[in-house]
């Protein structure tokens, strides 16, 4: 018998309420040359009956069974029975759009890449919604790319939105580990090991996050076990990337801090609230090696709030961590304080700043690198024969009500001898300003803005877009775009 083009492995466990919708979506695939290997991972709810019914009426479906071991071993069993040229995975409670496998396999047939991947949507009670982790990642298609050249793929951590070339899978002896979060180490390793990857901007998978209701005490303890499994999975990826690609490890570590460790901190807060010290110790024990392995350059570049939370997490300071997180949720922002003069530094007054009894280092509150100039041109217009530049300028984290804005133009003038700087009259209202171009000699002038606040002074060129500029000029003066979209005032004769 001729081998199918594609094998789809579908592990399922106690999803009787969803499996029929899943299998119906597979049966409706526009790619017909496919086998579906359904692996019953010891279901106890009758879902196996639905699977067998599909197999009885459609020869493309086969059912295997094992004692409950988790989705990883179930997938491995299915892979051993798969015979297709390509390999894909779906979960028994999810849905696959009907053209998904035709698009993914078609791309691999055309390019010769090892992996093709596409977008994901979430299944919610309200309908399909974009998945936050994938929305930006699959906005634009790319053929024969790689995670080294497109490092955002480090966020593509699941296997079910992909099709793999089976020869590639076997060559690198890819296999799912046991336990939860088995997708992550396999998906990341495959991205790194692939010769090339195709990115499709079509949605190829609908992922369901089931609502399990309020967690009981037993379920909460299971959540602690889940956190342990999650962090163990992350540690495996950290070790793999440390050997294969330190730069990608830095990208991965950034996602660990911004995404995965949030769940650890949530579990810690719950353990504090419920007074379960054993859970606290388990969580602290499992997360410490993960924090120790974080790339130091990545950590140094984090915002102060995250550096502070990492420190508190690592130092097992659960009450302080809980208070800092509460402050960040409930307060608009922390007040910024200037300290020292040669050179000065700026610090965010998060909880426990300056509290020597806690021993938290001041540098964790340092936000100097976060004080970034934000400048924007709203529009350039004529008013009563005067050219006005309207915009906004502020320094991130500093009170715009206490700031001072200056606007000026720079250029060599018509003579081309030396650079001149001419201050422009400007009205300010908070971060907004209106500057008036007047008394300017002939020449080509760039427009600049400076913001001073709380001892910090930053300046930048003003940019613009064509829609923000007035059409034509007056009295030999016009606004134009220079290189890199910067705003330029061209004066052909004296105002």
Automatic annotation (TrEMBL):
Q: Which organism is it from?
A: Streptosporangium subroseum
Q: Organism classification, top ranks?
A: Bacteria, Bacillati, Actinomycetota, Actinomycetes, Streptosporangiales
* Single GO MF annotation: hexosyltransferase activity
Protein name per Swiss-Prot or TrEMBL: CDP-glycerol glycerophosphotransferase
Q: Taking every annotated instance into account, which residue ranges of this chain make up the domain Glycosyltransferase 2-like?
A: 7-168
Would you say which domain of life the source belongs to?
Answer: Bacteria
InterPro entries noted in UniProt? Glyco_trans_2-like, Nucleotide-diphossugar_trans
**Is Transferase included in the keywords of this UniProt record?**
yes
Keywords of the record: Transferase
Pfam families recorded: Glycos_transf_2
């Amino acid at each position: 018998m001729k081998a199918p083009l594609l094998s789809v492995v579908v592990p399922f466990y106690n999803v009787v309420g969803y499996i029929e919708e899943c299998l119906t979506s597979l049966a409706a695939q526009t790619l017909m040359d496919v086998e579906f290997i359904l692996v019953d991972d010891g279901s106890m709810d009758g879902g196996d009956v639905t699977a067998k019914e599909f197999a009885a009426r459609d020869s493309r479906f086969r059912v295997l069974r094992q004692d409950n071991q988790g989705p990883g071993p179930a997938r491995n069993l299915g892979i051993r029975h798969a015979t297709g040229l390509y390999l894909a995975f779906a979960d028994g409670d999810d849905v696959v759009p009907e053209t998904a496998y035709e698009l993914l396999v078609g791309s691999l047939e055309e390019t010769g890449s090892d992996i093709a991947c596409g977008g994901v949507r979430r299944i919610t009670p309200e309908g399909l919604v974009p998945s936050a982790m994938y929305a930006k990642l699959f906005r634009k298609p790319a053929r024969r790319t790689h995670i080294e050249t497109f490092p955002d793929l480090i966020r593509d951590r699941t296997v079910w939105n992909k099709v793999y070339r089976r020869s590639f899978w076997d060559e690198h002896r890819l296999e799912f580990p046991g336990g939860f979060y088995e997708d992550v180490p396999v998906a990341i390793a495959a991205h790194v090991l692939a010769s090339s990857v195709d990115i499709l901007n079509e949605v190829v998978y609908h992922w369901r996050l089931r609502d399990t209701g309020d967690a009981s005490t037993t379920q909460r303890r299971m959540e602690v076990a889940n956190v342990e499994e999650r962090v163990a999975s992350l540690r495996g990826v950290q070790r793999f990337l440390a050997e294969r690609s330190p730069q990608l490890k830095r990208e991965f570590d950034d996602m660990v801090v911004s995404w995965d460790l949030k769940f650890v901190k949530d579990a810690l807060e719950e353990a504090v609230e419920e007074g379960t010290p054993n859970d606290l110790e388990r969580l602290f024990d499992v997360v410490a090696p993960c924090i120790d392995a974080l790339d130091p350059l990545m950590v140094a570049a984090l915002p102060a709030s995250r550096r502070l939370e990492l420190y508190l997490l690592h130092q097992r300071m659960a009450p302080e961590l809980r208070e800092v997180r509460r402050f960040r949720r409930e307060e608009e922002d922390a007040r910024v304080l200037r300290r020292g003069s040669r050179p000065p530094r700026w610090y965010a007054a998060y909880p426990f700043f300056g509290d020597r009894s806690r021993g938290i280092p001041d540098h964790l509150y340092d936000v100097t690198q976060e004080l970034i100039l934000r400048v924007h041109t709203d529009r350039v217009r004529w008013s009563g024969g005067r050219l006005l530049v309207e915009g906004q300028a502020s320094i991130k984290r500093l009170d715009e009500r206490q700031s001072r804005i200056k606007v000026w133009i720079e250029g060599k003038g018509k003579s081309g001898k030396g650079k001149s700087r001419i201050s422009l009259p400007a009205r300010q209202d908070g971060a907004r300003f209106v500057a008036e171009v007047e008394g300017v000699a002939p020449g080509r002038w760039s427009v600049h803005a400076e913001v001073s606040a709380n001892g910090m002074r930053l300046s930048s060129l003003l940019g613009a877009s064509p829609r923000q500029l007035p059409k034509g000029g007056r009295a030999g003066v016009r606004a134009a775009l220079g290189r890199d979209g910067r705003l330029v005032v061209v004066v052909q004769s004296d105002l």
